[in-house]
Amino acid sequence: MKILVPVKRVVDYNVKVRVKADGTGVDIANVKMSMNPFDEIAIEEAVRLKEAGVATEVLAVSAGVAGCQETLRTAMAIGADRGILIETDAELQPLAVAKLLKALCDKEQPQAVICGKQAIDDDANQTGQMLAALLGWPQATFASKVVLADGKATVTREVDGGLETLEIALPAVITTDLRLNEPRYATLPNIMKAKKKPLDTVTPDALGVDVAPRLKTLKVAEPAKRSAGVKVADVADLVAKLKNEAKVI
Amino acid sequence: MSEYIAPVRDMQFVLKELAGLDQVAKLPGCEEATPDLVDAVLEEAAKFAEGVLSPLNVPGDQEGAKWADKAVTMPKGFKEAYKLFAESGWTALQCEPEWGGQGLPKVLGAAVSEMWKSANHAFSLCPLLTNGAIEALVLTGSDELKKTYLEKMVSGEWTGSMNLTEPNAGSDLAAVRTKAEPQADGSYKVFGQKIFITYGDHDMADNIVHLVLARTPTAPEGVKGISLFVVPKFLVNADGSLGARNDAYCVSIEHKLGIHASPTAVMAFGDHGGAVGYLVGEENRGLEYMFIMMNAARFGVGLEGVAVCERAYQRARDYARDRIQCTDIGVRGGPKVAIIAHPDVRRMLMSMKSQAEASRALAYVVAAAHDAAIHHPDPETRKQNQAFVDLMIPVVKGWSTEIGIEVASTGVQVHGGMGFIEETGAAQHLRDARISAIYEGTTGIQANDLIGRKMAREGGATLKVVIGMMRALDADLAKQDGEHFVAIRARFTAAVNAVEKAGDWLVKTYASDVRSAAAGAVPFLRLLGVVAGGWQMARAALVAQAKIAGGDADPFYVAKIGTARFYADHLLSQAEGLASSVTDGAAGVMALADEMF
User: Is B423 designated active site?
Assistant: First the structure.
């Protein structure tokens, strides 16, 4: 069974980003970039399935600038067998990425796509769902447990009321939640081996996908600064302030 | 509380722009060290240091290693962390591929081990000591010893320890009294007590390979009669499995100022009939073998100085950003500000940051020269690089560890009263840093090595070459007309002149009046450290300026030039005073008779 895992290069979770002065977006020049943490969980899950003898090949895919090669190498150091970079400098929105992944799935014919439920930069939480729709495959999102057997995926997902378990037919798209697993530390020998694993590059054009953005960003702004607290005289005062100023009750 | 974040950006800058990583990667045997691999290794090592080792630093200090019934129990979490460390392959980074190592260059090893040391000094000593033992066996062990021990040590399944010191043989190893009696089967029985044995016992690995200095019955007195032995905790069967417990026991551990999680053992060999030992190399050459790896170990300890500068700086910086106290100086009735706004706090932070960066740059440059000294195809180039390494190792060791203590102390000061309270963590850095200037040869021992073996013996030839390299920078500095560069150039020129003057005086005086020379040894070591650090900061500033001129807007480069400027005015400015202490200071040092103290 081949598993395809999309991985996104995002601003590292430790970085405190700043909004550009002109409000067009976030300034990511010279900041540390890393693999989206949910995607790391997806890679880890796929590699565990391979180690358990369920999967035979783990293919990592990234879309974006040349620097995404580093992200693919990281995926291969964790245990992915090979990588494909869909290289473009264009802005990629979830729909474009889903279409690119669809084109690759048509070509590679994986039995499952395991991807992070969302990326920590835009928090869109859309790509996996769009990909499933484009492929006409079933989807199971926010997985906290995944079992693949007999052409089916049994996926436990975290929902408001607790845990829900779905059974879907493969091929399918599964998106990972935080508690699915704890990604391993890559070992030094595997970091070195990752360098020698195959990494192919394709372009959106070659895949026949138009990645032009469909959404327009109007403005990006910092969250409002918290104002200083005040001392309230008594409970009545507190209730009045909550009601009239904070408007939360 | 401030968590350690590995300074990967500065490490990459130093590796690529100052230490010549691209040149190292061209050396035969170092081809694996391509920039993308180096980046990947740094990133992953950073994750490990930040995620596994750093969180154990404070609890390890509080709990400490425990001793009972001749065995040491490590603080909670250390055993698991060590297992993960070994399984992740970090023990094998610099080791020979023949024994399962990755054979990566020392310059990359330096950056990675700086992370271990910053994250958890006490933990990092275990792989440091094991590496020393590995190096000794690789260089001098018989094929049988290598086959029996090396693979398991490289993989980290077994660890190593170095047993030199005895109660009456500290800095003076000629006084070693441990005995080794030859047996019919070619092995020896070792009897004696060793003290201050770092990781002499612990519960993180299945076996411990002790390297022990001892005398055979026919050995001559003094340093020429000391041999080196392998004494394993558990004997090893012919098939490689572990056999009987050897007569080598940890009979107590020390209560120390710092590095509480690192067990410092008193080792008793042969209390129950004799510890089985195997001779390493030839008889009576033990001290010579020890010195081969001493350089590596001294370099490793020097990195501890770099590491604590960085760690203490990060903690102080994070505190200074958070702690609100007083209004901005000169502003009446304004808002209270974070203390990082106050000029004196900035001065302290800059002194910490600039010395961390300067000592890092010098250490990595020396590590890169070490790689060239081993791997370069041209024998003359190898020789030149080795001479540079030999000269600079006592400086990296002595200077970096001394400033490590000062920077950790400044870190406490930035915290104010809270720095004196253990809960901020600032005090632990100061306590942990203190040992680095003592073990593997005190600063005084380093300084004597520097002025005697490394300078006087060769008439100061290598120092002259280094001074020439420093002066060669002047043409590039002169081309820069910015205010920062004018100041850097002036300070640097004066500082290099000071090194030359003091160095000439020392080489001359060493022959005629060795006591006066020795009185100036430590000030000279410091002088050479300060100036060599300034040399690297000046180089760094020039690289940064070129990047800025090329249109790179990364604020890292602006900060680098500002930091080099600070270093010039606040550290390089000490050079002339230090040179005077060297050339004029002996009179005062020797002025009092013993009984006047």
Answer: no
Give the closest residue to B403 by CA, choosing from B267, B220, B210, B533: B533
Q: Residue B501 and residue B523: Cα distance in Å, rounded?
A: 13
Model confidence at B332, pLDDT cuts 50, 70, 90, reads confident
For chain A, helix (H) and strand (E) counts, in that order, are: 6, 13
Does B9 contact A74 at a Cβ distance shorter than 8 Å? no
State how far residue B536 is from chain A, nearest Cα, in angstroms: 23
- Using the structure block, give the residue that is written with the tokens 């399944």: B157
Is the Cβ of A228 closer than 8 Å to some Cβ of chain B?
no
pLDDT in tens, A50-90: 999 999 999 999 999 999 999 999 999 999 999 999 999 99
Query: How many CA atoms are closer than 13 Å to the CA of A16, on its beta-carbon side?
Result: 2
- Quick check: is B68 in a domain? no
In a domain, B467, yes or no: yes
Mean local confidence (pLDDT), B193-202: 97
d(CA B121, CA B436): 10
* Domain assignment of residue B81, yes or no: no
Write out the residue range of the structural domain in which residue B490 sits: 460-587
- Give the distance, in angstroms, between the CA of residue B546 and the centroid of all CA atoms in the same chain: 31
Number of H helices, E strands in chain B: 21, 14
Query: Residue B575 falls within a domain, yes or no?
Result: yes
- Mean pLDDT for A30-41 is 95
Provide the number of structural domains found in chain B: 1
Task: Tell me which chain A residues have a C-beta less than 8 angstroms from the C-beta of B40.
Answer: 70, 73-74, 77, 191, 194-195
Q: Do B39 and A188 touch (CB under 8 A)?
A: no
Residue B50 per-residue DSSP state: I
Question: How far apart (Å, rounded) are the C-alpha atoms in residues A243 and A237?
Answer: 10
Model-level pTM greater than 0.90? yes
Sequence spans of domains, chain A? 2-244
Interval B459-506: pLDDT, tens: 999 999 999 999 999 999 999 999 999 999 999 999 999 999 999 999
Mutate to test the interface with A, among B36, B42, B44, B318 (most CBs of A within 10 A): B44
Nearest CA in chain A to B9: A32
Cβ–Cβ gap B90/A188 under 8 Å: yes
Residue B1 is predicted with a pLDDT of 63
When the candidates are 3.30.465.10, 3.90.180.10, 3.40.50.620, 3.40.50.2300, the CATH number that belongs to A2-244 is: 3.40.50.620
Note whether A195 contacts B36, CB cutoff 8 Å. Answer: yes
Give the bridge partners for A145, in sequence order: A156
Marked catalytic residue, from B254, B440, B458, B500:
B440
